[in-house]
Amino acid sequence: MVDLLKPLNPYGDSKQQFDRWALAEAEAGRAPYFWAGLKFFNVYGPGEYHKGRMASVVFHAFHQIQKTGGMKLFRSHRDDYADGEQLRDFVYVRDVVDVCYWLMHHRKDSGLYNLGSGKARSFLDLTRATFDALQVPHDIGFIDTPEDIRDTYQYFTEADLSKLRRIGYDRDMTPLETGVTEYVQQFLLTEAVL
User: Which of 52, 61, 135, 136 has its CA 20 to 30 A from that of 178?
Assistant: First the structure.
């Protein structure tokens, strides 16, 4: 299955190369007693301040709304998606930590696993949740997707969690609105006041 994937950028290619290596090591009998390779989807939440422009859309939306009162999203350049309706699997960092902790104690069923919420949501959903968490009116505009990423821009990502579920992980993932509200109100706003 890994060999069928076609990465769109050097970052994705480096991840696929590592996955291939891990699978080859396991097949050759050189893997540890237990190992898990996790494919993270769009993680958001506390502790991402060091990521700069690679921080989550929630992080950037919060700061843009605080500074300007509005948020600019990428315009769609495809007829089958309206502006802001591009879909991503946004996963709250608490869920990522919970899965990692569970796997650390489960210690069987080695392999590669997707780690997302399992539900694609739009950038508009995420941005509206950020405005709602700030309790301010929505002011959302659109800008063109930069030319240099337009051809490889992903319009849909959604983690298939079936493999993780099959090995026994049965906890619900945090709904987008719940995670965004907690992140904004309990972390970003309190740090903005400091």
Answer: 52
> How far from 92 is each of 1, 46, 182, CA to CA, in Å?
26, 9, 10
Q: Cα–Cα distance between 107 and 127 in angstroms, integer?
A: 37
Report how far residue 128's alpha carbon sits from residue 46's, in angstroms, rounded to the nearest whole number: 19
63-99 pLDDT, tens digit each: 999 999 999 999 999 999 999 999 999 999 999 999 9
CA distance 184 to 191: 10
- 8 pLDDT above the threshold of 80: no
The three-class DSSP label of residue 27 is helix
Distance (Å, whole) CA 64 – CA 59: 9
Distance CA 128, CA 155 (A): 19
- Domain 34-193 of CATH type 3.40.50.970: no
39: phi then psi, degrees, rounded to nearest 5: -100, 100
Tell me the pTM: 0.91
Q: Give the orientation angle of helix 57-68 with respect to helix 123-134, to 10 degrees.
A: 50
Decide if 164 contacts 96 (C-beta within 8 A): no
pLDDT score of 194 more than 60: no
In three-state form (DSSP H/G/I as H, E/B as E, the rest C), the secondary structure along 163-182 is HHHHCCCCCCCCCHHHHHHH
Residues tagged active-site: 11, 51
